[in-house]
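--- STAGE predict ---
source: upstream dedup step, 1 unique chain passed
mode: sequence only
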Amino acid sequence: MDYTIEVSNLHKSFMTYEPKGTGIISSLRRTRKVKAALRGIDMRVRKGEIVALLGRNGSGKSTLIKAIAGILYPDSGYVKTMGMDPWNQRKHLAMQIGVVFGNTHPQLYWDLPPIDTFDYIKGIYGIEDADYNARLRYFIRLLNLKKIYKRQTRQLSLGERMKCEMVAALLHLPPLVIMDEPTIGVDLPARMNMRQAILEMQRDYGMTFLITTHVVDDITDVDRVVMLDKGKVIFDGSQKKMRSMLARDVILELRFGADENPKGLIKKGKIIKSEPGYLKAEIDPSVLKERWLTNLIKNKRIIDYRISEPNLSTVLERFYSSIKGRKAAKIKKMIIDE
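--- STAGE serialize ---
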């Protein structure tokens, strides 16, 4: 199988120093500690795949990305990025990947329009004029940039800047794109535009995307989810697999007359929200076949109802709750390989 990223038994630790005691003396007396950021990471990303790398702050996401890109050298383990050793072939690898680091490491020049940055990048990567013009037209259409790419960067909104940052990172059409928190603070229309652009670039150019994010909407269309916790992979699989593990119940929503309190109607399942005129509950899918539910829906007090699966935010919240306080051995049992 053709893999763009291969990671095996990757370990990385950092030395930290903590103050000992209190007051002025604490700055002079420190305790040295070793913090393990990555603890035996195993991960593979297929060519042309869109993978979301998730985890709470401090779980090891950024450290893993830096190792994959050749920025950090691990203590032990094996990494191949596009068939290359990311440290010994770092310069060559840098020409083959695109990186978008949210709003923390901008490529655009603040006082210049994005088009000037694009022209500069064209020279760095040696892009031919005809290819450059064709790609620029493609990205302007894809990300709706016609009215903004010639304006000063300082005059653009955050969403507009981030779309131009994407162009700067992808003008050379890299086979691998790493996006670290690309939509923090970005408004909904720009976020949706960027999501659609990723799908089109995957289809048109076969690009591979590795995306870290805390925005649930960003991973709606990904092919796979890899979740880290305390430097370990605790889940590797599809969203469908994740839902099957943690979203066994379905959501039942009922609407009543404005002044009615519907609490007494629900005899099965767990009520998660109840207010005059509205009730939301989690119920086992098997209940859908029971006469109890049919009779409930026929109740004349109910003016509308809806049955759906829990949204992705709920699923992820359950996942984080399920791993809280678990030992490493128990976490290992949760790993899913597809």
